[in-house]
Amino acid sequence: xxxxxxxxxxxxxxxxxxxxxxxxxxxxxxxxxxxxxxxxxxxxxxxxxxxxxxxxxxxxxxxxxxxxxxxxxxxxxxxxxxxxxxxxxxxxxxxxxxxxxxxxxxxxxxxxxxxxxxxxxxxxxxxxxxxxxxxxxxxxxxxxxxxxxxxxxxxxxxxxxxxxxxxxxxxxxxxxxxxxxx
Length: 182
Known about the structure:
Blueprint: H1 4-23, H2 26-29, H3 37-44, H4 49-56, H5 60-72, H6 77-86, H7 101-126, H8 133-147, E1 167-170, E2 177-180
Antiparallel strand pairs: 1-2
Helix pairs in contact: 4-5, 7-8
């Protein structure tokens, strides 16, 4: 049940995942130096703190605070950019997912599907209409496939606003169509 929007999202995830492949290695290989990048580069260039402060048009105490805040991970991006310019460097800023985006979406969809089908199975068991285990995995897969293409996948408010309108994907005839839940 692929819509133009879900197809576009999948293509976007694939394109981004390809770009992130190399970037995912950076945290292990490019860990920030103990004193921070500004200080490490400044010292590697043989530049005194007062020289960098002058190039940035700030006081030496401001530069010392900046180096400390960068070391502590609290420096502002615009301030880092000014320091980078003064050091003739570029800021490389990115949010790099720890896992491929498509994997994240599929795992989330499966988790949501398991939770929803688990609630349905529990209710049916209370009504003495227990679901046969063989059908559960098929239902989970169909619902996960459906949820992965729908808005609200990352909504943690349960079934409210799930976009299913009181329905869940049916696995009859191998199609993930909507069937009445209640």
